[in-house]
């Protein structure tokens, strides 16, 4: 079998590109996106800090140490802090999305790199480089065999997140190319995350980002000490893609081809609503229907054209998506989400409470929502929405949303990101003054030693 192995593996090419990057040389657009990621992730950690799943993650950690758990007084080891912060950042499904994946990079990479840098006294420029590298690797991995990991029953953010976190932490800590190869190889055996949470709205998806974040730290530290991982972790006959996508064939050039000269990180999308990404254009369509003066009671039926690749997560079983079992399941139920957006004029964190998901006006409208697969839907390269509403007077009204708001075609401004941060920290129980002080402090974090103690409370 050794004769079949490549002379230079995908991981080796990737590691050489990463090792060649030096702090302080990122393009301005990439730097700004990483600044936005920092603001967004910290705000998300604060907004979720009092939720039961975050309390369980923190209370279930017995590894106290020097690293900040954002929004909490207690500190943990680097791995522990990365786990809890990643779980919190991803927990409300309000974190960033990479169109084309879909994967959520910020909730994995930012907690991993910040925790590692806080523990090992690394400066801001190295942390910035690590966050950019980790985000880039995670996003590009999702392009190698699009949709295949989801189809196989795994959560791509969890699988590729461990690899991205290993690369990002490795870059921040200054690992050489050989060590980065080992870190990637080690992380391949730490990757995991099944999507069975969809069945009843269990909490496990929330921890996928945190688990990937802490795995990346552990892999990088092991590699730094000489622990050897397989260099063919990606393309090998028993490698990552074989295990999680059931193939070793893929577009590896999408991962390594122009890495370091073109940054897909620049196109990251920030969500306007705290729920599944592909549902968001349908919420926009529903809001526009309502803005025409149409009442829920006027609607006879709603038919949505959807991408086949989203059906198993967001549309089926249809009865469960029309009447979700709990607030978390509602985040992945398009009939409920678009109906909530129609009735309430938007979808905020408040529509996922146990009382809110029993709102009879919303549920009555959701029961009228059906779907049909559009074979020409551009998913995952673009997230679109199309609603055709038949009214009780026999008229038909349609709305289309051609792209994800907050994404590459209509990105959020820095002020939008800051406004979202303010709302999130307020939801998490911080005062306006606390939020404003934290936002000002975050503006200088990439220029100093990474010490997050100001975010403890």
What are the main properties of this structure?
single chain; alpha+beta; 60s Ribosomal Protein L30, Chain: A; 2 domains; two-stranded antiparallel ribbon; 20 helices
Structural account:
The chain has 457 residues and is of the alpha+beta class. It folds into two domains: 2-271 and 437-455, 2-methylcitrate dehydratase PrpD, CATH 1.10.4100.10; 277-401, 60s Ribosomal Protein L30, Chain: A (2-Layer Sandwich), CATH 3.30.1330.120. The chain is built from 20 helices and six strands. A hairpin with a 6-residue loop joins strand 1 (64-68) and strand 2. Helix 2 runs parallel beside helix 19 (414-427), helix 8 runs parallel beside helix 10 (204-224) and helix 17 packs across helix 18 (360-366). The longest helix is centred in the middle third of the chain and has 21 residues, at 204-224. The radius of gyration is 22 Å and the shape is globular. The chain starts with 9 loop residues before the first helix and ends in a 15-residue tail after the last helix.
């Amino acid at each position: 079998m050794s004769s079949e192995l490549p002379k230079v593996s995908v991981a080796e090419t990737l590691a050489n590109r990463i090792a060649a990057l030096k702090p302080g040389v990122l393009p301005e657009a990439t730097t700004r996106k990483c600044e936005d990621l920092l603001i967004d992730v910290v705000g998300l950690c604060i907004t979720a800090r009092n939720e039961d799943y975050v309390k369980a993650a923190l209370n279930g950690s017995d590894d106290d140490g020097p690293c900040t758990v954002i929004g909490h007084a207690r500190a943990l080891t680097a791995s522990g802090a990365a786990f809890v912060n990643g779980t919190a950042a991803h927990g409300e499904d309000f974190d960033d999305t990479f169109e084309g994946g879909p994967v959520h990079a910020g909730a994995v990479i930012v907690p991993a790199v910040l925790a590692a840098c806080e523990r090992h006294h690394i400066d801001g420029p190295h942390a910035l480089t690590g966050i950019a590298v980790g985000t880039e690797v995670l996003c590009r991995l999702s392009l190698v065999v699009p949709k295949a990991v989801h189809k196989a029953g795994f959560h791509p953010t969890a699988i590729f997140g461990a690899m991205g976190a290993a690369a990002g932490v490795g870059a921040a800590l200054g690992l050489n190319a050989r060590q980065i190869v080992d870190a990637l190889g080690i992380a391949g055996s730490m990757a995991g995350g099944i999507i069975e949470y969809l069945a009843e709205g269990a909490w496990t998806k929330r921890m996928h980002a945190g688990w990937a974040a802490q795995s990346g730290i552990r892999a990088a530290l092991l590699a730094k000490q000489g622990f050897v991982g397989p260099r063919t972790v990606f393309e090998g006959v028993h490698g990552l893609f074989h295990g999680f996508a059931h193939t070793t064939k893929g577009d590896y050039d999408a991962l390594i081809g122009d890495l370091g000269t073109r940054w897909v990180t620049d196109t990251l999308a920030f969500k306007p609503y705290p729920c599944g990404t592909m549902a968001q254009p349908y919420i926009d369509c529903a809001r526009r229907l309502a803005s025409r003066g149409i009442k829920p009671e006027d609607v006879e039926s709603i038919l949505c054209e959807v991408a086949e690749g989203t059906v198993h997560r967001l549309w089926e079983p249809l009865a469960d998506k029309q009447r979700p079992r709990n607030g978390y399941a509602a985040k992945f139920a398009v009939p409920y989400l678009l109906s909530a957006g129609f009735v309430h004029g938007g979808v905020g964190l408040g529509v996922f409470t146990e009382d809110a998901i029993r709102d009879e006006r919303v549920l009555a409208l959701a029961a009228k929502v059906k779907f049909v697969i559009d074979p020409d839907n551009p998913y995952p390269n673009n997230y679109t929405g199309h609603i055709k509403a038949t009214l009780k007077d026999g008229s038909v009204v349609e709305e289309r949303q051609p792209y994800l708001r907050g994404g590459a075609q209509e990105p959020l401004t820095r002020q939008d990101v800051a406004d979202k941060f303010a709302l999130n920290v307020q939801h998490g129980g911080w005062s306006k003054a606390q939020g404003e002080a934290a936002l000002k402090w975050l503006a200088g974090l990439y220029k100093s030693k990474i010490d997050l103690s100001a975010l403890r409370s």
